């Protein structure tokens, strides 16, 4: 599996739609090669380091394939005129949450990255688009995007390839994982909740979420 990288994006912390609360969700395309380290792209920032960034969420990937859906759903929104509307660092065509799996390892430019979780949407998406219901629509449609942790540093630029090199957990598509932990399917999938405990590559915060759901539904 190989996909072309359409854009590499980073963002700086700044005012969020005129509010006092800062954010770096406004990612912009970067020309030329960008270094990749353990915490993601050089020059990329996160305002809320509790919920964004870190080892397990070093790089955010959102498929360009979802943009036609959002244009149809939201109309002529300027944000959807190019990549970065969802705060992504990487934009590609040809990959989505059904074709990418937890633990997948990709050669991203010259770096090696590993899929750690799907993205859990937050209220900032509604605020960014100025429309209520975007976050909820992400949940119901499973158009979440995903995060990588960085296993080997390197560099990347638009036009490079994103090449799958290993798929250790082919039973865990990101759409299925998202539905289990975020989309409300945990109660009806107790066997999957048990099985997920044995997947060490899952991001630490989602391990905690899995454990809470298992406790809530009496899964041991």
Automatic annotation (TrEMBL):
Record's SUPFAM superfamilies? PK beta-barrel domain-like (SSF50800)
Pfam families noted in UniProt: MOSC
**Stretches assigned to the MOSC domain:** 28-165
Any GO MF annotation of the entry: molybdenum ion binding
Spell out the protein name for this chain: MOSC domain-containing protein
Q: What are the leading ranks of the lineage? A: Bacteria, Pseudomonadati, Pseudomonadota, Alphaproteobacteria, Sphingomonadales
């Amino acid at each position: 599996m190989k996909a072309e990288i359409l854009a590499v994006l980073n963002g700086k912390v700044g005012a969020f739609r005129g509010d006092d609360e800062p954010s770096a969700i406004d990612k912009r395309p970067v020309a030329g090669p960008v270094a990749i380290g353990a915490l993601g792209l050089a020059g990329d920032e996160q305002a809320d380091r509790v919920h964004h960034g870190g080892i397990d969420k070093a790089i955010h990937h959102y498929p360009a394939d979802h943009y036609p859906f959002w244009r149809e759903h939201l109309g002529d929104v300027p944000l959807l005129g190019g990549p970065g509307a969802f705060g992504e660092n990487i934009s590609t065509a040809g990959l989505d949450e059904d074709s990418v799996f937890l633990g997948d390892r990709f050669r991203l430019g010259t770096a090696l990255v590993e899929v750690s979780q799907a993205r859990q949407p937050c209220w900032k998406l509604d605020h960014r688009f100025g429309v209520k219901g975007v976050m909820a629509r992400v949940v119901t449609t499973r158009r979440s995007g995903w995060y990588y942790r960085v296993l080997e540093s390197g560099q990347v630029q638009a036009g490079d390839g994103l090449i799958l090199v290993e798929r250790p957990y082919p039973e865990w598509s990101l759409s299925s994982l998202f539905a289990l932990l975020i989309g409300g399917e945990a109660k009806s999938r107790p066997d999957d909740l048990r099985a997920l405990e044995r997947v060490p590559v899952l991001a630490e915060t989602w391990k905690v979420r899995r454990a809470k759901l298992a406790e809530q539904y009496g899964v041991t």
